[in-house]
Design brief:
28% helix, alpha+beta
Length: 316
Amino acid sequence: MNFFDQLDQWGQNKVPFVFFVDFEMAHPEAYPLHECPEHWKYDFQGLTNHTYYTSEQKELIAEVIPPQRSVYQRQFDQTIEAIQRGDTFLMNLTTHGRLTINRSLEEVFNEATAKYKIWRQGGFACFSPETFIQIKDGVISTRPMKGTIDASEIDAEEKLQNNVKENAEHATVVDLLRNDLSLVAKQVRVIRYKYYEEIKAHRKTTGQLSSCIEGRLPDNYPEKIGQILQRLLPAGSISGAPKAKTKELIQDIEESPRGFYTGVTGIFDGTDLDSCVMIRFLCEDGTYRCGGGITHLSDFEEEYNELIQKIYVPIL
């Protein structure tokens, strides 16, 4: 039985489960909730298998090493060339910098404040602000996050709301995900468009633009929960449009698999589901994965600076 068929079977039998799907969907994992192994810790908006503990109150010391400029320049140029050829009109290009902190990954997981947190022992910690999909009472919703700014800038929200490139990118992702939801749901509509949020971290606050799209699933959706996830993957906000061709370009231009970075993870309680996109991603060796959407309006310096803005841990 393949991975998604197994999820359908658990859904049909109302078995609560937790799942972790890598971007390439090559090594997905899922477990009945009571059988989740110790090396996975999660906290999905308060639903957690972690016992929190009081940490020693030591000042957070964090050193950011930006992505290698020459590597990102080469990949950025390749992406722009693909856009000019018409192969894609929005591609999420990812790379990596480094973050050195005086915390273990377990301590980061324990102390960080985020909507979604995941810790793979010996692997990575992820503290994601971005919902992938939620299902509640038969309504499926998604909340794409596209558009980033340093919130300390004067009039940061107004600047972001009026940025032509960020607006075009956000509109493209909303349209892509509206179409994606239409593959599995009816009455799909945008219920909130381009709202501004701030995410606080150590010595940094990041402004983000998000939207909310929702639709109505058929009554028997629990027995198709695996199919629903499979049809919606990979997440549009961290792949691009058109999705299939853009995913091929990502594999060529980024040169190495993303693994669990930009994959999705979540929890199903037998009826409802909550999940996130695995962004804001710190690896055991200090590698910090980061990325952003590239369009024909993208400016290299602005995109490079956005990568640096995204390298943080949400410990205040």
